[in-house]
Amino acid sequence: MSLRDLSGSDSRPVTAVAWASNNSTCPGTFNMISSTEDGATASFNRGFGRSGYFLCYSKDLSGSMVVSDIQVISDRTVIPHGYCFIPEFMEPKGSVLKKKRVCARMVPVGSVTTGVLEVRLTTKSKVMLQQYTCLGELHGFVLWCKKGPISGPAPQAKPRSVSLDLRKLSLEGTAPPQPLRPCNLPPAPPRISCRRNKLEEKTIGENDSSSNIYGITAIDGVPFALHPKFEAQTNNKGSANSFSNIRIKSIQDIENEYNYTFSVEEQAAQRITASAMASS
Fold first, then answer.
1. What is the rounded distance in angstroms from the CA atom of residue 180 to the CA atom of residue 262?
2. What coarse category fits the chief subcellular location reported for this protein (predicted)?
């Protein structure tokens, strides 16, 4: 057995694997594996009257999907969960052998850290590829894949809006300083006629008075005048001395003055009770 080192291959991840009849049916973003690593023609099912088909792979990241794993299964094996059979780009009369099939696991590019980086073919049991994983025998060939770390798409810087004042700033420029200008000034009020201004002031006053119901009382609009009796006392210079004759009563004085025994009510109740007993 011979040993080969393919460490200098492309480090981009494989994004799709498929079958193709030839270069004309192979999609433009795919690379067709036309020969094995030991120099043999990598045509599957080629024989008398048959043109065969080839394995191809793509590294186009426009679909944002990568191949995280590849398996070779027999026609009696249930396809693993999360895997799918690789597509076929065949001529109208071409077909792929179903005895053994290739299935791949497709995942978003940012959901995994490792994936398939290379796909290679060798003739059966003759070549060993360093750093490659043997996936199994496939119709007279051996399928290999190389896995490695992959990274998500490079983040793109979002454009930022720069104000006009910041654009004018420059560390290299030697332009004379610009005069200071006031900023964020309030907008000037619109010019209106005197008649319209008076109408607006009247409307505002009416709205303010009617907006508060607690500002309206029952005596609004009633003229107020002091009684003549009190006007005479107010005009009298000696009226201030009249307050000196006021006697301040204590609680006991008030109780003695306004003491009420409810004797009348008691007598009335007694009469009602006596008349009720007499009638019974």
1. 92
2. cytoplasm
Pairing of strands 2-4, 127-129: parallel
65 Cβ contact list (under 8 Å, min separation 6)? 15, 16, 106, 107, 108, 109
**In a 3-state reduction of DSSP, which class is residue 255?**
helix
* CATH code assigned at 81: 2.100.10.50
Location of structure tokens 């006697």: 247
Residue 162, domain member (yes or no) = no
How far from the centroid of its chain's Cα atoms is residue 234's Cα?
78
The residue range of the domain holding 91 is 2-149
pTM of the model: 0.51
DSSP notation for 54-93: EEEEE--GGG-EEEEEEEEEETTSPPPTTEEEPPEE--TT
Angle 41-142-87 from CA coordinates, rounded to 5°: 80
Q: How far apart are CA 76 and CA 143, in angstroms?
A: 19
Nearest alpha-carbon partner for 115 in 202, 16, 21: 16
Please report, in tens digits, the pLDDT of each residue of the chain (280 residues total). Answer: 343 444 445 678 999 999 999 999 999 999 999 998 888 888 887 765 677 899 999 999 888 899 999 999 998 999 999 999 999 999 888 888 888 999 999 999 888 889 999 999 998 766 788 889 999 998 889 999 999 998 655 555 666 665 555 555 555 555 566 665 655 556 666 665 555 555 556 555 555 555 555 567 777 777 777 777 777 665 555 555 666 677 788 888 888 888 888 888 898 989 888 888 887 6
Please give the tally of structural domains in the chain.
1
